[in-house]
């Protein structure tokens, strides 16, 4: 059901953001340990975490996780898959947005027809040769 996939996708986005936040807090902790060992002033938390920007990024990641779960609900089988889709939603949706359609691959982004390749008998270049053609000594 799409509601379950959306909720699990949002949970995956939240888990991914928690991992990012843990990395920032871990860097702050390491900087504090280094400062204590050298008797330097302790670094402030706001040098590693920006509450407003990080909160907005977290909300957006949760929303993207929910949207990815909703978009792919027909393809998702199981909670683990839905959480994984949600956790990877920013990269997954960016990749889907960059996907090339067959028409763009054939005609280019401006829709122009590809240049025709010259045929062997149109006088542009030497004709193809094959082993055993006339003119070769046997």
UniProtKB/TrEMBL annotation:
It comes from the Bacteria. Residues 104-138 are annotated as: Disordered. This is ABC transmembrane type-1 domain-containing protein.
